[in-house]
Amino acid sequence: MRKRMLGVALATLTLGGCATSPEVNELSLAEGEGGQLIDCGGFRQSMNDCIAAANAACDGDYEVLGSTGREWGDHSGDAALLNAYDQAMVVRCRSAQDD
Length: 99
What we know:
Helices cover 28% and strands 24% of the residues. The chain has helices spanning 2-18, 47-57, and strands at 23-28, 34-39, 62-67, 88-93.
């Protein structure tokens, strides 16, 4: 019984650990600039997790190029790859020279 409880606890911790952080991947945008694809479609993740990951990746200064949210109906151009995701966003970090 003790081994079974330990196995259940370990499985719970393992699954819980998978859900804590969105996956952030570098990508090349059409203009040759760098961007980030942030996938927050994991178990117990939300678009708030995507926003937090974008803030962390871009030091809080970024432009959303596309999102799977309802307000972003057309996924074309750099955002076309979002069609393959449940919850994700494409962002471009801004630099001081963008201002």
